[in-house]
Amino acid sequence: xxxxxxxxxxxxxxxxxxxxxxxxxxxxxxxxxxxxxxxxxxxxxxxxxxxxxxxxxxxxxxxxxxxxxxxxxxxxxxxxxxxxxxxxxxxxxxxxxxxxxxxxxxxxxxxxxxxxxxxxxxxxxxxxxxxxxxxxxxxxxxxxxxxxxxxxxxxxxxxxxxxxxxxxxxxxxxxxxxxxxxxxxxxxxxxxxxxxxxxxxxxxxxxxxxxxxxxxxxxxxxxxxxxxxxxxxxxxxxxxxxxxxxxxxxxxxxxxxxxxxxxxxxxxxxxxxxxxxxxxxxxxxxxxxxxxxxxxxxxxxxxxxxxxxxxxxxxxxxxxxxxxxxxxxxxxxxxxxxxxxxxxxxxxxxxxxxxxxxxxxxxxxxxxxxxxxxxxxxxxxxxxxxxxxxxxxxxxxxxxxxxxxxxxxxxxxxxxxxxxxxxxxxxxxxxxxxxxxxxxxxxxxxxxxxxxxxxxxxxxxxxxxxxxxxxxxxxxxxxxxxxxxxxxxxxxxxxxxxxxxxxxxx
Length: 506
Hints:
- This protein is an alpha+beta fold.
- It has 14 helices and 19 strands.
- The strands form three sheets. Strands 5-4-3-6-2-1-7-8 form an eight-stranded mixed beta sheet.
- The longest helix is centred in the first third of the chain and has 18 residues, at about 35-50.
- It is elongated, with a radius of gyration of 28 Å.
């Protein structure tokens, strides 16, 4: 189509500046957990301290305070850094003028975190800061909610107010950021797989584990320290955070040390270590030797960005027998161009970034995929149990991997099906501790057997041990009936009760 060159007879300006409240609401709720939000607040402090680590007058200490207010939690992050010289830039969306390390690469972190805690009209947050110039003038500066763009009379500009004194900042220079988070949102720090409700103390424990994991490389290899103050019911508890490190199985670890590399954006250093880890029962989230916490762990300058990623490196899902395998990769560089780009939340990398693709190729080239142990610990347990049932003279039929829901073609199989003279018993086996989902899996098998005209008299969940929630759920399910009208009969058993002991191979 031919486009004629024309001279306009008039023009008008499109006024599309958002209101501060509208923009603030728009950038909120992009995190899965308030724990991730807290990491965003911590990032700014860590970045400032890393960039100025050579200044002996600074305090390399970051303190997170969590105060239980009943219906809300007051979250406060305090550091002993250089302070914020330009609060206007710090509160401007996507402004990178104050960026000091790759942790500030997006210019969204502070605003993103504040909005994610509470972007409602009643938002409550404040920033106090003190630079060396402020200290020399015996003053501090403060900005308070609400967030605004200064675009109209109804959206008036935010103001930086100057006050004499230190503003309760514990160090000569530094920054204190405080934001109020509704308790309902704060409870998102509890992992989804933790079914039982958590009190405030346990919620704080989840946050502590998250910080110890995310900043493990920084806590282990830099002078920066972190503390968490838990305040509830008039009591204060101080927690000093050591790095959360995996416990490596002796003799399984390969450590490449520092390797110079270029992923396409400039030189950087790759630190790579891999091997098998041992399960740490004191952890609630990480290094549990499960699919969620194994595989490939990627960090930038010690800060965790993403984990899992087994399938993205080796092209297939991780097998349960590979759950102890861990690859730790830390990319060391202060040049953002050299590093794979992260998403604004810094909870993952940008998948289309060629530098990330080059990194995953590097890992696949230099780290061999662990062999699948098709004879897993769980399978060896089941084989031993099968052998014992086969030696039982009252057992007429013993079958492993018994298909269920055959009438609808569902590819589901029971670990062990035993037809005795007087009853039918099925088994679902787990090597370690059970969870509620395991019992529901067994219920599905019972229902499938009923629909296949193989009614089950007894369904046994057998494992190393059973949680309290599984025991409670068993009692509830045993009050219900299967699709064929027969009452459920779920039983919990342990390998010790069966006298079965399996040694896990290295």
